[in-house]
Amino acid sequence: MLKGKCGCGAVTYQMKTNPMFVHCCHCSECQRQTGSAYVLNAIIEADRVIFEGPTTENALATPSGKGQIVTRCAACGVAIFSSYMIRLGKLRYVRVGTLDDPDLCRPDVQIFTGSKQAWVPLSDDIPSFDGFYKFDDLWPPAALERLKLALA
């Protein structure tokens, strides 16, 4: 079971299973919202993430224009996970950096590399896309089945 917490430790969480897929997103909105060059999101079914502690939610923009809700620790403000409006309550995009051992969630894909910072190198062994990609092209069959069940 993967475990994590916010910066101050007031919010803790556990992922009941491994994530379905992990995105390394280089879009300008992720850069702005994280204050970093990219964000790592572990995509998992919402009901497989158990969390405790005081949280707040913020509605923020996405490149698609569909928006997301970011769940943060109410005490320190660290983003723990997000949920995209079109899949609200079905999936969580857990911020890999909040895991106790982030090395356990290596990125499966690098997206929106067309807007990445020029000084950020891309790994040749991780598929990269200037924008987004088709799930069917990259996700393993078992992960696609989990995604289909979660969105049903």
UniProtKB/TrEMBL annotation:
Cross-referenced SUPFAM superfamilies, in alphabetical order?
Mss4-like (SSF51316)
Which Pfam family is one of this chain's hits?
Answer: GFA
The alphabetized UniProt keywords are: Lyase, Metal-binding, Zinc
- What Gene Ontology molecular-function terms does this entry list? carbon-sulfur lyase activity; metal ion binding
Spans through the membrane: none
Record domain CENP-V/GFA: where: 2-113
Q: Does the keyword Acyltransferase apply?
A: no
Q: Which family does it belong to?
A: Belongs to the Gfa family.
What's the protein called, per UniProt? Answer: Glutathione-dependent formaldehyde-activating enzyme
Protein species of origin: Boseongicola aestuarii
